[in-house]
Amino acid sequence: xxxxxxxxxxxxxxxxxxxxxxxxxxxxxxxxxxxxxxxxxxxxxxxxxxxxxxxxxxxxxxxxxxxxxxxxxxxxxxxxxxxxxxxxxxxxxxxxxxxxxxxxxxxxxxxxxxxxxxxxxxxxxxxxxxxxxxxxxxxxxxxxxxxxxxxxxxxxxxxxxxx
Length: 163
Description:
By secondary structure, the chain is of the alpha+beta class. The chain has helices at 2-14, 20-27, 31-43, 81-88, 114-125, and strands spanning 64-72, 93-98, 105-111, 131-139, 144-145, 148-149. The strands form two sheets. Strands 2-3-1-4 form a four-stranded antiparallel beta sheet. It has a two-stranded antiparallel sheet with strand order 5-6. A hairpin with a 6-residue loop joins strand 2 (93-98) and strand 3 (105-111).
């Protein structure tokens, strides 16, 4: 069953929209086994959600992403968990990671423009008790996200001329 789970997770991580019948065929099991295994992993919290990867640069919507490094003072008995929870509760925040290195947390968020993100960092994030400093990095272009290449090169469609 563990091998089935690992194979199933590997496939749906790349394509969560794959048809259940097709999954069953690929894995060599019955469709009901796939359905039951997915339901079990959802209830166990192994599968936490299903998401769509969107290249926002190809839409008419204004959206910008940023990575914010945050240095904090850990709390006795709680470590970084309480401050991480306060940060991830903001709707602007997409993800919060505990990281190694010179900073403690890495926060990803989205906004409509640079000013909106800068305001969030200065007025909300930096103002939290326990936050010592932040460093904001705006994402200017995404080349690959969640294993998907977004910046594909345009292939030369001209006919090659050889002597």
